[in-house]
Design goal:
By secondary structure, the chain is of the alpha+beta class. It folds into 5 domains: 68 residues, Alpha-Beta Plaits (2-Layer Sandwich), CATH 3.30.70.100; 112 residues, no CATH class; 64 residues, Calcium-transporting ATPase, cytoplasmic transduction domain A, CATH 2.70.150.10; 259 residues, Rossmann fold; 113 residues, Calcium-transporting ATPase, cytoplasmic domain N. It contains 22 helices and 26 strands. It is elongated and about 115 Å long.
């Protein structure tokens, strides 16, 4: 089965054309088809050369390029020439109006002046209309505008024909500028890609392509340069600007031994970094992939508008034909009057405001979210986030920092504290869990990993490690009861790790985890946004969970849960919530991946989070701040409101002018103002999201 590929559509400047290309490719049997008008690209699975041929047939003016192929900038030749033609058309049009209406002149010379202004403004429309008519595409905006203005010329309305075309093209020009501005705004995120890396090789610094870097390579990053791939600092210290990744402006200090993320800017010191991930596995590559692929997952609103536009234009055109023919044939009304009214309908028949502003609004929301350190994988998830009414979240790494320390060692049965610490560290030597790391850090000595020959994990309880002559159990109280170990301590405040050596209870370690500074404020903000219930689901003890819940203000607590138990809790919350909104889950650990996938909207904390959770999540918060959940919800609701505003505005204006046009109360001037004007207002409204 062919994998989806991406192609650039250079010159795609019509939202209707994008919808037509997507619809045709789907009908031709291509899978995973998604045309992104704002980014000028198409994603599809199937015969690429066949797809190229179909797109060229539908839109000969579009260049179908590979993603990395060189192309023109946004302000291509046509965009630069267009203002010159418009200015020339306006210079002819204004004197023509003065001569026609100021001096009453109405001869051949005046007609020539308006015709010249018309051709200067509309040559591109007429060219596209001719090509579209040859291909049988009679509902293209260019063809409809050409027919409407030709009709105006035919009934002697020369000023209106020229004026409508000029105003239409002025509107198109400003629309293009607005869309290009949106494209540049999101491409500023794509500019995080680094063009070169300074590789240390044989004592020399060699400039190489970041794609050539491999784990173990050492690179130099000078002040002002971006870190090309993820790595760890070997020598040097500096401050890193990670604002493009996390949305936070405060520089992050780094020294030897600390991890650095690709896309960060080195502010002052010289850093030597050992590469830990290839370019395509690094943070910036994953961010770019998420942002670029986000528009493939379309919201229901986008899908509805695409379907609506497919039927709206033919219906209005049919209505225009009926308006032009039925009254004259039925009651002998004058043809010129009703043809003019029909031309008004043709002018208003293109749904540009809808098919242009709706995806642009969602694109702006996704782009703005990315700039604040929130990666949304699709506009459908943006809609879902706006509708969240219940939020469930993990404790460790979500409400708390996930940075553990051993704060107390309590021994039993003659064991010394240093022995207890050593046995616990030995058992946890191969574990990647944060608590295991804290236990190893608490042991000051060294341990040979080869000593541990077998490790048996006890789901939700702990582990059993075996050496050549000893068996060590490390885990919670459940492990002791399951294994039948005699002990005198069951209830201890905090996170407790019990240690058993050769079935003799050796004591326990108390592990402390600090609550994040913004957790309580984040919970309060979620409640202000109308979230009805906030729930904690955790594998930790009930005492610890309830203490954290009281401090941050969580409504319900589910503790000592296995991964399958968390799934059951989410299913119950979804059932209880019914149709009252969406259930979101916020987590970071690998055990959270199943619940992140199950929830209506899964949110992964990115900085400390596991790869599995981030890949499964619908939304990724890059800097691990729980407060970003509320920020994301606010942005999602703002995006949804903007989209709804544009739909109501566009449909209302068009409906009003359809009615006014039929009853002869609207002119072509007013119709084109309504059509182009409402499109420009809708586009401007959508772009506000990016601010």
């Amino acid at each position: 089965m062919a994998e989806p590929v991406k192609l650039r559509l250079e010159g795609l400047d019509c939202a209707n054309c994008a919808a037509k290309i997507e619809d045709t490719l789907k009908k031709e049997g291509f899978r995973h088809v998604s045309v992104n008008f704002v980014q000028q690209e198409v994603t599809l699975a199937g015969d690429v050369e066949k797809a190229r041929a179909i797109i060229r047939r539908l839109e000969p003016g579009i260049r179908v390029l590979d993603p990395d192929a060189p192309g023109h900038a946004d302000d291509d030749d046509d965009s630069r020439r267009l203002p010159v033609f418009m200015i020339a058309a306006i210079i002819l049009f204004v004197p023509g109006l003065v001569l026609r209406y100021g001096y009453g002149l109405n001869g051949t010379a005046i007609m020539v002046v308006f015709a010249a202004a018309y051709l200067l403004a509309g040559w591109k429309v007429l060219k596209n209309a001719f090509l579209n008519s040859i291909r049988g595409n009679l509902f293209d905006e260019n063809f409809l505008m050409a027919i409407a203005t030709f009709g105006a010329f035919a009934i002697g309305e020369f000023p209106e024909a020229a004026g409508v075309m000029i105003f239409f093209m002025v509107g198109e020009y400003f629309q293009d500028r607005a869309i290009n501005r949106s494209r540049r705004s999101v491409r500023s995120l794509l500019a995080l890609k680094v063009d070169f890396a300074n590789l240390l090789a044989d004592g020399k610094v060699v400039r190489v392509d970041p794609e050539d870097l491999r784990p173990g390579h050492r690179i130099i990053v000078r002040p002002g340069e971006r870190v090309p791939v993820d790595g760890i600092v070997i020598s040097g210290s500096s401050g890193l600007d990670t604002s493009a990744l996390t949305g936070e402006s405060m520089p992050r200090p780094v020294t030897a031994g600390e991890d650095v993320l690709s896309g960060s800017v080195n502010l002052n010191g010289l850093l030597t970094i050992e590469v830990t991930k290839k370019l395509n596995e690094s943070t910036i590559a994953r961010i770019l992939a998420m942002v670029e692929n986000a528009t493939a997952r379309k919201a229901k609103t986008e899908q509805f508008i695409t379907t609506f536009a497919r039927y709206y234009t033919p219906v209005v055109v049919l209505l225009a034909v009926l308006v032009a023919l039925v009254p004259p044939l039925a009651v002998g009304a004058p043809y010129p009057v009703w043809i003019y009214r029909a031309l008004v309908l043709l002018v208003i028949s293109c749904p540009c405001a809808l098919v242009l502003s709706i995806p642009l609004g969602y694109f702006g929301g996704i782009g703005k979210a990315a700039k604040t350190g929130i990666l949304v994988k699709g506009s459908n998830f943006l809609d879902a986030l706006a509708a969240v009414t219940v939020v469930a979240m993990d404790k460790t790494g979500t409400l708390t920092k996930g940075v553990f320390k051993v704060t107390e060692i309590v021994t039993r049965n003659g064991f010394r504290p240093e022995e207890l610490s050593k046995y616990a560290a030995l058992a946890e030597i191969h574990s990647s869990h944060p608590i295991a790391a804290a236990i190893r850090d608490a042991w000051a000595g060294t341990i040979d990993p080869a000593v541990v020959r077998e490790v048996e994990e006890q789901a939700g309880a702990g582990i059993i490690a075996r050496t050549d002559d000893q068996e060590i159990m490390v885990g919670n109280d459940r492990l002791l009861h399951e294994q039948g170990i005699d002990h005198d301590t069951c209830h201890v405040m905090g996170t407790v790790v019990h240690v058993v050596v050769d079935r003799s209870y050796a004591g326990y370690l108390v592990i402390a985890d600090e609550i994040k500074e913004d957790s309580a404020a984040a919970v309060r903000e979620l409640k202000k946004l109308g979230v009805r219930k906030i729930v904690m689901v955790t594998g930790d003890s009930r005492d610890v969970a309830e203490a954290v819940a009281r401090e941050v203000g969580v409504d319900e607590v589910y503790a000592r849960l296995l991964p399958e138990d968390k799934v059951a809790v989410i299913e119950r919350l979804q059932h209880e919530n019914g149709n009252q909104g969406k259930v979101a889950f916020v987590g970071d650990g690998i055990n959270d991946a199943p619940v992140i996938a199950l929830a209506d909207i899964g949110i992964a904390m990115g900085g400390l989070g596991s790869d599995a959770a981030i890949e499964t999540a619908d939304i990724v918060i890059m800097d691990d701040k729980l407060s970003k959940v509320a920020v994301g919800m606010q942005l999602a609701r703002r995006t949804r409101n903007t989209v709804l505003q544009n739909i109501v505005l566009a449909l209302s204006v068009k409906l009003v002018f359809i009615v006014l046009g039929i009853f002869g109360e609207a002119t072509m001037w007013e119709a084109v103002f309504a059509d182009v004007g409402v499109t420009m207002v809708a586009v401007a409204n959508a772009i506000r999201i990016l601010r």
